[in-house]
Amino acid sequence: MKKSNIAIMIFCLGFTFNMFSQNIIPKPVSMTLKNGSLSVDSRLPIVYDKTDVNQTKIIKHLQDVFTTLGFAMQTAEMSQGPAIRLSKSSSTAPKSEAYSLTVNENGIHIQANDFGGFFNGLQTLRQLLPINRQTSTVSIPYLDIDDYPRFAWRGLMLDVSRHFFSVEDVKQYIDQMVQYKYNVLHWHLTDDEGWRVEIKSLPKLTSVGAWRVERHGKFGDGRAFPKENEKATYGGFYTQDQIKDVVAYALERNVTIVPELDVPGHSMAVLAAYPELSVGKTPKFVNPGSKFSEWYGDGTFKMLIENTLDPTNEKVYEFLDKVMTEVAALFPGKYIHMGGDECYKGYWEESKSVQDFMKKNKIKDSHELQSYFVTRVEKIISSKGKNTIGWDEILEGGLAKGAAVMSWRGMKGGIEAAKLGHKVVMSPTTFAYIDYTQGDKSVETNIYADLSLEKSYEFEPLPEGVDPSLILGGQANLWTEAIPHLDYAMYMTYPRALATAESVWSPANLKSWPDFAKRVEHHFDRFDQQGVTISKAIYDPVVNVAKKESNIVVTLTSPVANTEIRYSLDNTYPLHKANVYRAPLTIPDGHLFLRTQLYRNGQPLGRMLQISREDLVKRAK
Ligand code: ACM
Questions:
Q1: So what's the pLDDT on residue 6?
Q2: Cys-Cys with 271: which of 128, 284, 504, 526 at CB 3.0–4.6 Å?
Q3: Which of 189, 391, 406, when mutated, tests ligand 1's pocket best, judged by the most ligand atoms within 8 Å of its CB?
Q4: 90 and 21 in one domain?
Q5: Annotated catalytic residue, options 97, 147, 191, 260
């Protein structure tokens, strides 16, 4: 081989090593790259302590990682030469889920003190390896990593009510999230659009509440209510055996599942099954996504069909006791989520019997009535040996001390809850609602709000002045009104969930958008190679429109480095040789389109955006 070729090869190998090691998401607490690299193939034995259950449980996962690369790693009692070694952490005060990972001439060494630590160490090792292998061995750079999570609760929420996701879908969702060290799956199991968990003592919850008439198109817009005698054919639910299977699958991957039973609002599916639990006691149906509420833009709203449980009816608490008894037995985690969000109180306020109850019990208004309900449910949940968590509305009117709050209407509910001594999980709409539109409106499905990757990366779960011991962590939420299947769920979840993963795992001072954006680009390849299609909206220009006097002025920016923004305003393409954007554009009059696209090294990077002047004018308002 010519000297120059050898030099190129060494350069390329070095580049590959750096490529993997410098791109870990979430960023480790500390990482030192060393000179040299370890060559990995099936001859590398796995040596571990069989008496340590945390290590024995990890072996299958470890072997699976290498099996996907075509290597068959065997376990061995001991090894003189290089090996993959697992051992207890030598740290005297190891943090929960912490690990260290060393790669050197002796092989790969993962040290941890609990299962989570070994599992997280394995996820980092996985990111140091390619997804596929073209060569007979793969190389890992010599390095030392010391790593531990910033927060104990690192969650994603999956709504399976608005659309039903199969057991296999949920398992795939878990497979993907654990690669980024998430450890909580918040499973939104019930809502107006379907009840998804079998409760054996209340069979109608699933025989009736899990099924709705089939409708297509945008939720809330033009979806007709059920016709008389129309068969409810869309939906599904998880049997208790399926739930146990998913819970075990998650636990084997260091994930605790937090089930959510959303009450007293969002309960149309319950009321379809048991209308006697509502104030009106009138027959209901499982909502097929029809519009049944009015929103007034300031957070207030009206439900045109009753979807709340009657908090003054003892039968409601008997019902919830049955539900919580079975749910508590299915989910080994500490928390049960009782929802509590967006409870419309109009039907309570209009009911004479509810008003009489309030007078008799000295309950001054409907907020206090909600608080009465929350307190009763909290007691039921704690009687099953579990802690309650709920959306930030459960604070209204006072909340039992032991209950935790999930802050979604911004961070303020979480701050207020922490000031009152409650534990808090932050999942604010502003940074963590991954159902929101993530790219330009002209190329994405629009819902009512936007959340770019860059904005999600700004998520800081610990507000200033708040006792850090009360912030359990943070979570991103995937509501699925507009997400009918797993492929789109992945597209909406990633890469924004990578941003959230870093916000809840990595030290705040290590966060940097340009550095993160570079690493995300590398992970695009990993997703591609895993056959998971995710959003590459960061490869599209960001279009900001302003009205300046009578002019429409457009500012274009690129979320990623090393790009040129090209554009045309004369209704032409391709853009290969079009104008390079250098300064804000004043849009001329006429029937024209702004066409714009990012280029890198002369090649188009993402999608070409095409926005009519009329739409620009609308955006400027
Ligand atoms: C919520 O988004 N309603 C919690």
A1: 45
A2: 284
A3: 391
A4: yes
A5: 191
